[in-house]
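Hello everyone,

My group is preparing for a crystallization screen and wants a predicted model to guide construct design. The compound we'll soak is zinc ion. Before spending weeks at the bench, it would help to have a computed complex in hand. I've included the protein sequence and the ligand's SMILES below. Output in structure-token form would be ideal because that's what our pipeline reads.
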Amino acid sequence: MLLGAHVSTAGGLYKSIENGEKLECEAIQIFVKSPNRWVSKEPTEDDTNRFKESWQASAIQSILIHDIHLTNLTSPKPDVLESSRDQVRSQLQLADVLGIPYFVTHMGAHLDAGEDEGLRLLSESLNLMFEQTAGGEVMVLLETTAGQGSNMGYTFEHLRRTIDNSKYPERLGVCLDTCHVFVAGYDIRTEDAYHETFDEFDRVIGLDRLRAFHLNDAKAEYQSRKDRHEHIGEGNLGELPFRLLLNDSRFADVPMVIETPKMEEMHATNLSVLRSLIES
Ligand SMILES: [Zn+2]
Ligand SMILES: [Zn+2]
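Reply:
Good plan to model first. Here are the tokens for the complex, ready for your pipeline.
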């Protein structure tokens, strides 16, 4: 089991390892740039070395980088598109320097351009990013989204098309967010529904592409397409889907991180709820 949490890097990248260790994480997710700013200080060689040394000395096995919040690789606005591509490229380069294998990003919002144009532009952006980081080994994990506004990625078919349209399909995987798929219309609340959803995922995308999970309960209703995370077991998903996931041998080697609210105060509680669901 590779269970853990999104943790803070405040005070330096290596702090994320300390934060993960305090929570007894086997996996963590981090931001490597300020998530709400276009410009942030590049880590120095000292910073990246210290991170790598701390990671090596820790029990953390798997690390994911989450893209900053501002990027939109499908923006019809040229300046936003260019900045987004710059940011993603530099985060992919940083991931390679840090030895982090996965970079999680959302599929973007087409605004008023329509989904076909949005998906086309996303593929163009991703092809360019991979071209510009050729030789790198980082995989981009497309995250399933809630489908708020004009966000794409709320159907498995969107992800399939993006993989099919890629010149570098070997560098694309998927991060499944339990809250997002549920509010987007993939039920996982009963054992039957859980199996139907993962059978569908396997049929449309292929389970071998599934490289990470975000474990979040949902504050919003089924099919509401509203992205609001809730503490594990306290939302509309309840504990069962998490029990099924944590004991599904197909996902034993797939990192699972929580992104539930109030990270500082509540991560330990949410992780202990999850650990209590693991059947030995
Ligand atoms: Zn995300
Ligand atoms: Zn979310």
